[in-house]
Design brief:
Elements (H helix, E strand, L loop, with lengths): L1 H16 L16 E4 L5 E5 L10 E17 L4 E14 L8 E12 L5 E12 L6 E5 L3 E6 L2 H5 L1 E7 L3 H10 L3
Parallel strand pairs: 1-9
Antiparallel strand pairs: 2-3, 3-4, 4-7, 4-8, 5-6, 5-9
InterPro entries: EF_Hand_1_Ca_BS
Keywords: Signal
Length: about 180
C-alpha cells in the first residue's frame, strides 16, 4: 500500500510539472540607472552666520542616508522614467535656539557610464521642520523624475548621483572628517 501511495505521488508531481503557462506573461521590469550617493557630499553641517564653527554654534547636522527609486516603462516601452527620492536625517544643533526649520540644498546629477559627461543636473531645497521639542527628524523628498531611452544598455549605462550642495569649506570639512 505504501508503495502504491509513493507511485501516485510521483505521477501527480509529473502531471503538475507538465502544466504549461496559464496565458499570463509577466513583463520584464524596467531597467534602472546606477544610483549612488556621493560620499563627499553626504553630510551637511551648518553653523550660525559669523560664528566660529563649533558644536555650540551648530544649527543643523544633516545626512543624506539613502534614497527610494522606481523605474517604469512609459510611452509604449519607448522610454523609462526613473523616479528618485532622497532620504535625509537631520539633527537640530545647540546653536539653533529659536529655529524650528532648516533648508537642505541638494542636487541630482546624471552622467554617462564613465562619469565623463554630465547629462543632467537639477538642484533642490528641501525644507525641514522640527515639530515641538523634537531635535531629530527623518524626511524623504518628493520624487524627482528623469526619462531615459528604453534600450536597456542605455538606461543601465547612466549614473545618477545624489549629494548635498556644499560649499568648498563644507566639502573640505567632510573630507577631513571622513565617512560617518
Amino acid at each position: 500500500m505504501m508503495r502504491l501511495n509513493a507511485v501516485a505521488c510521483v505521477m501527480a508531481t509529473t502531471v503538475l510539472a507538465g502544466c504549461g503557462p496559464t496565458g499570463y506573461e509577466t513583463a520584464r521590469p524596467a531597467p534602472c540607472p546606477r544610483i549612488t550617493i556621493l560620499a563627499d557630499g553626504a553630510d551637511l553641517t551648518r553653523y550660525r552666520p559669523g560664528a566660529v564653527p563649533d558644536l555650540a554654534s551648530m544649527t543643523a547636522d544633516a545626512r543624506l542616508i539613502g534614497f527610494q527609486a522606481r523605474c517604469d516603462y512609459t510611452d509604449r516601452r519607448r522610454s523609462v522614467v526613473a523616479a528618485i527620492s532622497a532620504v535625509f536625517e537631520v539633527e537640530r544643533g545647540p546653536g539653533a535656539t529659536g529655529q524650528a526649520a532648516v533648508e537642505l540644498p541638494w542636487f541630482i546629477a546624471v552622467t554617462d557610464a564613465n562619469d565623463s559627461q554630465l547629462i543632467d543636473r537639477r538642484e533642490f531645497v528641501t525644507p525641514i521642520t522640527f515639530e515641538g521639542n523634537a531635535n531629530r527628524v527623518r524626511v524623504q523628498s518628493r520624487p524627482v523624475s528623469f526619462n531615459f531611452p528604453a534600450d536597456e544598455r542605455l538606461v543601465e549605462n547612466h549614473n545618477v548621483r545624489l549629494s548635498f550642495q556644499v560649499t568648498r569649506e563644507e566639502l573640505e570639512a567632510n573630507r577631513r572628517r571622513g565617512p560617518r
